[in-house]
Design brief:
Helices cover about 35% and strands about 15% of the residues. With about 450 residues, the chain is an alpha/beta fold. The structure holds pyridoxal-5'-phosphate.
Length: about 450
């Protein structure tokens, strides 16, 4: 890529509110970085961050933004939580990392035991990896090989749902919404699965039943983001849908996979969405808030019957997966500390309080022409617009209001840290009401 193609619009550091020039590392390094989900030629430049604390992001020019996103929904205890930091620092002094092949360490095994105890039913075996997408790939491999190990190799497809998002790796893309712009380009190259509407109404339920009737014999399982389809548009459904999926999976002897990478760790109001729905999936994926947003870590957790199909004297029945940094000791230490915080601090009560504040704070948007829907579940608040306009300028407007909010698709949303102060939350919702009103008026 030629330097002249990287004409960055340094919107934030150079606008009139900026207190100084962008730092040298920013100007020099940005020319060499390839940023996520961005048309690099036209994208507004990212904001240079030098520090985080609590629910604040500190920019290079000294300004502080109140964070409405919690770093893609990970930093559930706020940034730099002293308890998490201390746990990671202690582990850093002893052993930052050791490979998990042929070796095991306390932080990983303690975490595996705790996750097995926290998740419902006999979700008992934890396979660690380092990102959500990989956790989903592993879930898919587990499900396909479950059937192969049981002598049914034809069962290797998945039933997944429109509006779903499970990650950016090949397998994860193949079960995401094929109509979603993001991965459309790759759709013809991906393995074909059955992607249908969630059975939310009679017509969709009939389509779901028909799909199972026709294709169950080639399906390894059903995969869903329970209660909230996140990156696909923050769409909500209720527990009854998940109970129907469980019943149908049992009827056709399919594995049910819950991707709780977004919903896990209290985001929807209970520790796990599966718990709220009263459904035990056969495989569960977790990541994002698993380490309280400190370090990358993911887990794919299997029920006993899934694990048992791999338990054999035959090496060919083993799960052949092992990411280099799986069960990283620093990340596991952060995750154990994060679980301590969930035990010791009133996170579920805080989520309930955030829910109420989001309802009240975003309610004025309901009256705006051009607002399609305002919805809240747990610590997720969404304003969906008919026509969102230019996302980049909307994001810049939020920054000018002193908040970090990152609209996508047709939605403006908040997923703050559970520790956010009432006034900070009020500033976030106030900024949304103001900016949405202005954007509709223009
Ligand atoms: C439900 C769900 N699954 C999987 C992923 C992919 O996780 P990662 O970005 O860590 O690969 C995401 C990320 O947003 C997600 O929300």
């Amino acid at each position: 890529m030629e330097a002249k193609n990287i004409e960055w619009k340094l919107a934030m550091p150079r606008d009139e509110e900026s207190k100084g020039p962008a730092p040298v590392w920013y100007e020099a390094g940005l020319r060499h970085a390839w940023l996520p989900y961005s048309q690099m030629k036209t994208a507004t430049a990212p904001l240079p961050v030098v520090r985080t604390h609590g629910c604040r992001i500190v920019l290079a020019d000294g300004r502080e933004l109140i964070d409405g996103v919690a770093s893609w929904w990970t930093a559930c205890h706020g940034y730099n939580h002293p308890y998490l930091r201390a746990a990671v620092e202690r582990q850093l002094a002893v052993m930052p990392h050791v490979m998990f092949g042929g070796l095991a360490h306390e932080q990983a095994l303690v975490l595996a035991r705790r996750l097995a105890a926290l998740t419902p039913g006999d979700l008992d075996r934890v396979f660690f990896s380092e990102s959500g997408s990989v956790a989903v790939e592993i879930a898919m491999k587990m499900a396909i090989q479950f059937w192969r190990n049981r002598g049914v190799p034809a069962r290797r497809k998945f039933l997944a749902f429109r509006g779903g998002y499970h990650g950016d790796t090949t397998g994860a893309m193949s079960i995401g919404d094929p109509g979603a712009g993001m991965h459309k380009l790759f759709a013809p190259l991906l393995p074909a699965h059955h992607i249908i509407d969630l059975p939310l109404d009679e017509e969709a339920a009939a389509g779901f039943a028909q799909c199972l009737e026709r294709h169950a014999c080639e399906l390894a399982g059903i995969i869903v983001e329970p209660l909230v389809q996140g990156a696909g548009g923050m769409r909500f459904h209720d527990g009854a849908v998940l109970q129907l999926l469980r019943k149908s999976a049992d009827r056709y002897d399919l594995l049910l996979i819950f991707d709780e990478i977004f919903t896990g760790f209290a985001r929807t109001g209970s520790l796990f969405a599966c718990e709220a729905a009263g459904v035990v999936p056969d495989i569960l994926t977790l990541s994002k808030a698993l380490t309280g947003g400190m370090l990358p870590l993911a887990a794919t957790i299997a029920r006993k019957r899934v694990f048992d199909s791999f338990w054999s004297d035959d090496p060919a029945r083993a799960l052949m997966h092992g990411p280099t940094f799986m069960a990283n000791a620093l990340a596991c230490a952060a995750a154990n500390a994060s679980l301590d915080l969930f035990e010791r601090e009133p996170r579920l009560r805080q989520v309930a309080g955030i829910s109420t504040a989001l309802e009240g704070g975003l309610a004025p948007c309901r009256g705006f022409a051009g607002v399609k829907e305002v919805r809240v579940k747990g610590a997720i608040g969404v304003v969906e617009l008919d026509n969102i306009g230019d996302l980049d300028s909307l994001r810049a407007r939020f920054a000018q209001e002193g908040v970090f909010i990152r609209p996508f698709g047709s939605i403006v949303y908040l997923t703050p840290a559970f520790t956010i102060a009432q006034e900070e939350l009020a500033t976030l919702t106030g900024a949304i009401v103001k900016v949405v009103a202005q954007s509709i008026a223009t």
